[in-house]
UniProtKB/TrEMBL annotation:
Glutamyl/glutaminyl-tRNA synthetase class Ib catalytic domain ranges (all copies): 29-336
Protein name: Glutamine--tRNA ligase
NCBIfam families from the UniProt entry: glnS, PRK14703.1
Glutamyl/glutaminyl-tRNA synthetase class Ib anti-codon binding domain mapped to chain residues: 341-441
Encoding gene, per UniProt annotation: glnS
Cited PROSITE patterns: AA_TRNA_LIGASE_I (PS00178)
Motif 'KMSKS' region, chain ranges: 269-273
Gene3D superfamilies: Glutamyl-trna Synthetase, Domain 2 (1.10.1160.10), Glutamyl-tRNA Synthetase, Domain 3 (3.90.800.10), HUPs (3.40.50.620), Ribosomal Protein L25, Chain P (2.40.240.10)
Length: 558
């Protein structure tokens, strides 16, 4: 597989890589995807995964999966496992074993000692508040810590004692000794180690000091011989620190950090912390709720790896804002599943029709192809019967002009079957239409009726043969395009109360044995995916609407 099924889209990171390969700076490309195992991955991570693994594939290089596990309180094995599943499901495989920043804790510690020995790191006893005060602001330089000039011997001993657990949490940090007057606040003697007695998913209680992200990340990259360390733009101001650390110590190589813009999806949230909030507050059914922009959520909804990869190809890589309309993602999914999904008929809002002139043994069931462009998928029998369900929206008693579906006295083609005329409308006491009595024209099987044009074609299922199906219809999770950009109101205020509608419908019998995750086109309704969790083939059918047949967003927003 190449990174994507289609030609790669050129972008500035490709240009850099190509120049590096051509100019001999590197013989091959090594990238990495470095998630923190503190939540499930979302669509933004998919962009980063496709970029990092995709580049490695395109240039016959390697891509590592490395967990950035330096925040023990927030991290878990569950998250780490889910991330591995997500990467594989998207179609990628990392080079060798999964790697962990914690694999390097011993080396990171040794580099800390190395920095101290060179007089480039010191143990500082300022409290967090004092630290903040000494740090200065964007317009004011910082002040040197009173502990900045401790001797190498004292620092070596204090750092060793920090590791040995002789000091309480938060009482000391190891800081890089750079420049308290730097215009870049990240360079004002940043902390590189802190004391934290927290149980770690990999190292257990072995450590009570943990290295900070900025310090850990660059060294881990260098130890893995990463050539191009790709990250999002918020790390641009951290690049001088990345480079500074690597310049001071003896590491095998000095990877190049390159930043690109984060993907933001309209009507969605791309922050693990906020997604976590939705889950823990029970506002969605879990990380894999099909309304979630998580990879597991998209998967459960029926989005395909191919569609997601194509999406990341289309949105491209740059340094400018990358706020993308949901319709771009849905368009990619629709295109992919359109080519794959077998067609069946299902009715979501059933209205009963009795065929008054149905003749047992004579009025025929028909065969329908599962896919008009894919004869290899074969055909299925679509049973016809005296009673059928049609979509209640396909009938109107007083239709506007140009309505080509069913109306009193009007005719419509039943998909794969006869032309049918509505002879009688039956209502309940409240005036609601409860049933239609219709007749078919027996001469219209596979041919047009004589002397008249019937424009509409509607879907239907046989009442006696259809299977009950729970259908979950999804709408956008938020009511505004940028739910987390409002300064006054919390993003939760913009949750769409109607983002999930569950209906009881009917599907034709050929879907009886659909396996979980199987995708169908329910003709005229959209693409639907058998739910990974709740769908039980042959027993309890549960389908999620993956995407509608046409783009309904553009219209609604316009
Ligand atoms: P979040 O804010 O959702 O927690 P994060 O950046 O903290 O995201 P990490 O686990 O650290 O999450 O991310 C792993 C990689 O994915 C990083 O290289 C990060 O830059 C990238 N990434 C995260 N979010 C996005 C996004 N929205 N678009 C593109 N890349 C992203
Ligand atoms: Mg992070």
């Amino acid at each position: 597989m190449s990174s994507n099924e289609r030609d790669p889209v050129p972008h500035f990171i490709r240009n850099i890589i190509e120049a590096d390969l051509k100019g001999g700076k590197h013989k091959s490309v090594v990238t990495r995807f470095p998630p923190e195992p503190n939540g499930y991955l979302h669509v933004g991570h998919a962009k980063s995964i496709c970029l990092n693994f995709g580049l490695a594939l395109d240039y016959q290089g390697k891509c590592n999966l490395r967990f950035d596990d330096t925040n023990p309180e927030k991290e878990s094995e569950e998250y780490a496992l889910s991330i591995q599943d997500d990467v594989r499901w998207l179609g990628f495989q990392w080079d060798g074993e999964v790697r962990w920043a914690s694999d390097y804790f011993e080396q990171l510690y040794a580099f800390g000692v190395e920095l101290i020995k060179q007089g480039k790191a010191y143990v500082c006893d300022l409290t967090p508040d004092e630290m903040r005060e000494y740090r200065g602001t964007l317009t004011q330089p910082g002040k040197d810590s009173p502990f900045r000039n401790r001797s190498v011997e004292e620092n070596t001993e204090l750092f060793q004692k920090m590791r040995a657990g002789e000091y309480p949490d938060g009482s000391k940090v190891l800081r890089a000794k750079i420049d308290m007057a730097s215009p870049n606040i990240n360079m004002r003697d940043p902390a590189i180690y802190r004391i934290r007695r927290a149980h770690h998913i990999r190292t257990g209680d072995k450590w009570c000091i943990y290295p900070m992200y900025d310090y850990t990340h660059c060294i881990s990259d260098a130890l893995e011989n990463i050539t191009h360390s790709l990250c999002t733009l918020e790390f641009e101001d951290h690049r001088p620190l990345y480079d500074w650390v690597l310049d001071q110590i003896s590491v095998p190589c000095h990877p190049q950090q390159i930043e690109f813009s984060r993907l933001e999806l309209q009507y969605a949230i791309t922050s693990k912390r906020k997604l976590n909030q939705l889950v823990t507050q029970g506002l969605v059914s879990g990380w894999d709720d099909p309304r979630m922009p998580t990879i597991v959520g998209m998967r459960r909804r029926g989005y395909t790896p191919e569609g997601i990869r194509e999406f990341t190809r289309r949105i491209g890589i740059s340094k400018s804002d990358n706020v993308v309309d949901m319709s771009v993602l849905e368009g990619c999914i629709r295109e992919d599943v359109e080519a794959k999904a077998p067609r069946v008929m299902a009715v979501v809002k059933p209205l009963k029709v009795t065929i008054t002139n149905f003749v047992e043994g004579e009025s025929q069931s028909r065969e329908g192809e599962f896919h008009p462009q894919r004869p290899e998928l074969g055909k299925r029998v679509v049973p016809f019967a005296k009673e059928i369900w049609i979509e209640s929206d396909d009938f109107m008693e007083l239709p506007p002009d140009g309505f080509h579906r069913l109306k009193p006295g009007g005719e419509v083609r039943l998909r794969y079957s006869y032309v049918m005329c509505c002879d009688e409308v039956i209502k309940d006491a409240a005036g609601n239409v409860t049933e239609l009595r219709c007749s078919i024209d027996p001469e219209t099987l596979g041919k047009n009726p004589q002397g008249r044009k019937v424009k509409g074609v509607i879907h239907w299922v046989s009442v006696e043969d259809a299977l009950p199906v729970e259908i979950r219809l999804y709408d956008r999770l938020f009511t505004v395009p940028k739910p987390d950009s409002d300064k006054e109101q919390d993003f939760l205020a913009f949750l769409n109360p109607d983002s999930l509608t569950v209906v009881q419908g009917w599907v034709e019998p050929s879907a009886r044995d659909a396996q979980p995750e199987m995708l169908y086109q329910f003709e005229r309704l959209g693409y639907f995916c058998a739910d990974r969790r709740d769908h039980k083939p042959g027993e309890h059918l549960v389908f999620n609407r993956t995407v509608t047949l046409k783009d309904s967003w553009a219209k609604e927003q316009g």
